[in-house]
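Need C-alpha cells for this chain, all 214 residues.
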Amino acid sequence: MKDIPVFSCPDGIATLILREVPFRGEGYILVRGVFGTLEGLLAECTGFCRAAGAERLFAAGEADFSGYPAAIRILGRSAPRASLLPAPEAVRLVPVTEETAADWAREYNARFRAVPAAESCSPAEERALAAGGEALWIWDGAERIGLGRVRGSELLAVAALLPGAGERCVRALAARCTGPEVRLTCAEENGRAMRLYDRLGFSRGAEERVWFSI
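Here are the C-alpha cells for all 214 residues:
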C-alpha cells in the first residue's frame, strides 16, 4: 500500500504513512500544518486511514499533541566506533544476494513485526536489497546469528536470530560503519534493544520523534 505524501482538508495538511497497514494494521499521520483545528484534521486523516484498513493509528508532527497519550518515543543513540571494536574474531558479515534477498526480507519482517514503529521490508525493497549492498547476514563460524543493514555511520537495522547474539551482531555491524561514531535510532519502548545499547555504551540522545496514540 502506498503512502500519501500530501493529504489536505480544510483543517490542515498531513502525510499519511500507510505502508504498514497490510503488514501490521498500523497507520501513521505526520502533521505538516494545521489551518483549523488539530481535532478536525485528525478526524479526516483517521477516517481515511481506517477506510484503508488501519486498526491502530499514531500521529506526530507540527502540532500540539498535549491532549493525546505518547505511545512511541524514537531516540537517537550513538557510541564511539572504537569502543565497539574489535568485532568477535569468528563473526563475519555476508552481503545479501539476489538468491538470499527473499529470505533476508522474511527474517527481517518476522523480527521487526513487534518492534514499535519499525518499518517493514516491502516487496520493492526486497528486490533492491542485493543491489544496494547495505543488507547483511551475520555469521559466527558456520552459524547464521543475525542480520543487519548499514549505511555510512548508521545502523539502519540490527536483529539477532539466536538468543544472546545481539552484542555480537552490533559489534560486527559497527566494524562495517564509517566515521568515528556509530549512530542508530531506537524506540524507547523496545526495552530489550534499549538495554543492549545501554550495556554497549550508547548515549541516550534527544527524542527524534514522538508518535501519539490516536
